[in-house]
Amino acid sequence: MDGTTTFRAAMASDADAIADLLTASWQESYAALLPAELLQRQLPGLHRAMWRTHFGAPRPGVVLLAEAADGLRGFCATWLDGGEAYVDYLHLRPGLRGGGLGRLLLGRAVAAVMAQGATHAALTIIEGNDGALRFYERLGGLAGAAYDAVLHGVPTRYRRIAWPDAGTMVSAC
């Protein structure tokens, strides 16, 4: 990662850029795990509507952006749910993985939610996303058993990853 990346909290005017980056990331990351119809045709509109709705009535937590001269590079959305920092989204623009940006975004976002009262952290990945599983386990995450749910009408297997102490995750980032 180069030194020109800056971090800031997202605003309502960022909703479409966040949605577009999220869609591109899903299309790259989940091509082998989710149907092409969902990834290519349904998600662009679903993600734009979801983020516009979020900024109309934001949840407690933070949506942290990483930006540079070439635009939005990534974001991390972490919600405060009781004492938990729930990492709902950590996505980078395609082609930017492996440079440390995801780790920086994650650590900063969880630290911000810890400042709001979170003591532990968790997230959920789609089963089969082995790269994400390895990434989170390297940061001290403990993977639970896989379980079935439905994602936009598609039966999907998930796996919850938890950190009993959110500070452990932040320190590893």
Annotate the secondary structure layout.
Elements: E1 6-9, H1 15-29, H2 36-56, E2 61-68, E3 71-81, E4 84-92, H3 101-114, E5 120-126, H4 130-138, E6 142-151, E7 154-163, H5 166-172
Parallel strand pairs: 4-5
Antiparallel strand pairs: 1-2, 2-3, 3-4, 5-7, 6-7
Helix pairs in contact: 1-2, 3-5
Description:
A hairpin with a 2-residue loop joins strand 2 and strand 3. The two termini are 14 Å apart. With 173 residues, the protein is α+β, with helices and mostly antiparallel strands. The model has no long low-confidence stretch (mean pLDDT 92). Strands 1-2-3-4-5-7-6 form a seven-stranded mixed sheet, sandwiched between helices. It contains five helices and seven strands.
- Compute the number of strand runs: 7
Q: What is the gyration radius calculated from CA atoms?
A: 15 Å
Please identify the structural class as seen in this structure. Answer: alpha+beta
Low-confidence parts? none
Overall shape: globular
Largest sheet: 7 strands, mixed
Oligomer: single chain
**Tally of separate helices:** 5
Spell the H/E element sequence.
EHHEEEHEHEEH
Name the helicity range.
25-40%
Mean pLDDT over all positions: 92
Order of adjacent strands in the largest pleated sheet? 1-2-3-4-5-7-6
Cα end-to-end separation: 14 Å
Percentage of residues in strands: 25-35%
